[in-house]
Design brief:
The chain has one domain (about 1-260): 3-Layer(aba) Sandwich (Rossmann fold), CATH 3.40.50. It has helices at about 10-25, 35-50, 55, 75-80, 100-110, 120-130, 155-165, 180-185, 190-200, 210-215, 215-220, 250-260; strands at about 65-70, 90-95, 110-115, 140, 175-180, 205-210, 235-240. Strands 3-2-1-4-5-7-6 form a seven-stranded mixed beta sheet, sandwiched between helices. The chain is α/β, with parallel strands linked by helices. The chain has twelve helices and seven strands. Bound molecules: S-adenosylmethionine (SAM). S-adenosylmethionine binds near residues 34, 69 and 117. S-adenosylmethionine binds near residues 71, 93 and 146.
Length: about 260
């Protein structure tokens, strides 16, 4: 009975829409898949301010890295550039297309590739368990075309960002994620620039960027399709020892309940 109390038909609809689209698309049809970490640097460059992902991790004692909506390849490339012997990497992808040799390579490098659907609560539980009590120094997600597989629903976004925050290390753990377009987010009352300002006033280092916000209103009026480019929106959060343990988002508990209690 409890599971139905927060039933939200719009979440069910949003989930059904993306799941149908994923099935039609098939599992392997990605333009970008397993890119090298330089490409992630390039994608996030407007909010990295000249620092690379390798720079970000090179001082950590035993880096722990999550790459969501990605096969293990990017973490393999990243780890080959880090000097530390002890590292842990976890990639989460909808499919696992690795060869036997790649699986063996990953095992030796302490990199796991979890197969799961990020729109399922159980996948987030599996992710947390895979950390075995550790916290992540870096959580990245650059889903590119995969962004269209995410449900356009505020409760999902709030749930996902809060979960990632929970999994971050308070010793300067960094979240670096591609987000859906401003248009999509605003259509479900998610106003990232305003939210970033609120987080800053709570003492959290937060930054977002979108191609749309870099362009003037005039250009967007003339070329409205630019607003819908999938690959030009990103968010960075940094968690420190004095940061709030729980991410301060209005109505967090309600959104979590909606997402956790949706029909399976
Ligand atoms: C375009 S690839 C991007 C891969 C990688 N991040 C990169 O930039 O090279 C999209 C990825 O999103 C993953 N993906 C799509 N829908 C997903 C879902 N519902 N749950 C988990 N992963 C998903 C796919 O499995 C695929 O690994």
């Amino acid at each position: 009975m409890e599971a139905y109390q927060n039933f939200d038909p719009s979440l069910e609809q949003a989930l059904r829409t993306v799941r149908e689209a994923s099935h039609q698309r098939g599992e392997t049809n990605w333009t970008r898949y397993g890119d090298c970490v330089d490409r992630y640097d390039a994608y996030f460059s407007p909010i990295l301010h000249g620092k690379s992902i390798v720079d970000m991790l090179s001082e950590k004692e035993a880096p722990v890295v999550l790459d969501l909506m990605a096969p293990s390849e990017t973490i393999v490339d990243l780890f080959s550039r880090l000097p530390q012997l002890q590292k842990l990497g976890i990639a989460l992808s909808y499919e696992d297309l690795r060869s036997g040799d790649q699986k063996e390579r990953d095992r030796k490098l302490h990199i796991q590739q979890l197969q799961g659907d990020i729109t399922e609560v159980t996948t987030w539980e599996t992710l947390e368990k895979s950390l075995k009590g550790k916290k992540a120094d870096l959580i990245m997600e650059r889903a590119m075309g995969g962004i269209s597989c995410l449900p356009v629903h505020k409760s999902f976004y709030v749930y996902a960002v809060a979960k990632m925050w929970d999994m971050l290390s308070p010793e300067e753990g960094t979240l670096l994620v591609q987000t859906p377009t401003i248009e999509k987010l605003e259509s479900v009352d998610v106003f990232v620039p305003k939210w970033v300002e609120d987080l800053k006033s709570n003492g959290i280092e937060a930054e977002s960027y979108s191609l749309a916000s870099l362009l003037s209103g005039d250009v967007l009026d003339k070329l409205p399709l630019l607003k819908d480019l999938p690959s030009c929106n990103a968010l960075k959060l940094i968690k420190r020892s004095d940061s709030p343990v729980t991410l301060p988002i209005p109505h967090l508990e309600q959104h979590k309940a909606v997402f956790e209690n949706h029909h399976q």
